[in-house]
Design a protein that fits this description.
Strand content: 15-25%
Strand order of the largest sheet: 2-1-3-4-5
Mean pLDDT: 76
Order of helices and strands: EHEHEHEEHH
Radius of gyration: 14 Å
CATH superfamily: Anticodon-binding domain
CATH class: Alpha Beta
CATH architecture: 3-Layer(aba) Sandwich
Number of helices: 5
């Protein structure tokens, strides 16, 4: 599952694109503290939390945190569905995102 904590509903398009890419998405609309969102995501088995911050959104970015190890990555909002698919494909193949990057480097 992937969770979205938006600052506004203007991020709705990204939410729809994530769902079209096969992600189960929960949109938190209430004014909740990030700590609550992370606990809720953990309780429901979410793998990632995407945080839409106004400053990052102005740059076209969203911060995504992988809950398994706490790694955070800034991802272009327009590329979020493809990024998510790539991350979940690597995870189901038994590798890591770093393994996929290493394989890409070896092919170059």
């Amino acid at each position: 599952m992937s969770y979205i904590f938006p600052d506004s509903l203007s991020r709705h398009e990204g939410l729809c694109q994530l769902r079209e890419a096969g992600a189960a998405v929960d949109l938190v609309l209430e004014a909740k503290k990030p700590k609550w969102v992370f606990k809720h995501a953990d309780r429901t088995g979410a793998g990632y939390v995407a945080l839409f911050d106004q400053r990052e959104a102005e740059k076209g970015l969203v911060r995504v945190k992988r809950l398994a190890d706490g790694e955070q990555t800034d991802v272009a909002i327009a590329e979020l569905p493809e990024w998510f698919v790539a991350q979940t494909t690597v995870a189901t193949d038994g590798g890591s995102a770093d393994d996929a990057d290493d394989a890409d480097d070896a092919e170059a």
